[in-house]
Every structure is written in C-alpha cells, then in structure tokens.
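REQUEST ID: PR-0412
SUBMITTED BY: lab tech R.K.
PRIORITY: routine
TASK: structure prediction, single protein chain
INPUT:
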Amino acid sequence: MTNISTTKMSSKGQVVIPEDIRKRLNLKAGAQFIVVGNKDVVILKNISPPELSDFDELIAEARKTAKAAGIKKTDIEDAISKARGKLK
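STATUS: complete
OUTPUT:
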C-alpha cells in the first residue's frame, strides 16, 4: 500500500486521483476538496459533511441559552413565520 503515485494534469486543469488512492480513501464521484497551493506543492483535502451528532453539543448549548433568555418554542415558530412573510 503506497502513499505516492504520479498523475498528469489535462489541458483543462483536471487531475486524476489514482484508483488505489481513491479506493483506500473511499473517495467517490462528486467528492469535494479544499485545494491549497504553496510554491511547488498542491494539497487536496477531502471535505466531508459533518455527522448530525456533531451538532448535539451546539444544539444543547443553544437550547440552554434560549431557556435562560426566556425564549419559548412558540416565539421561534412566530419568528420563522414572520421571516417567511406568513405572519403580520
């Protein structure tokens, strides 16, 4: 299992990630990357969406803050309706 391969860039700037690397990293068609270039180095960093569980702590903190501020669920629903133009 090697970490090094070679590839070429097409006239359109497209680069093929070698199959063995794609398989090892479980990269599928449509995968998105951050591209960093510095001098003669190009780095591709795979962007993967966060899991919903990653938001659990953030949601818990938001609920705690809203409760401390006295905000009720109906206040939030009213604000959403107003923003959508359904409530005058």
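NOTES: The first helix runs from residue 19 to 24.
REVIEWED BY: pending
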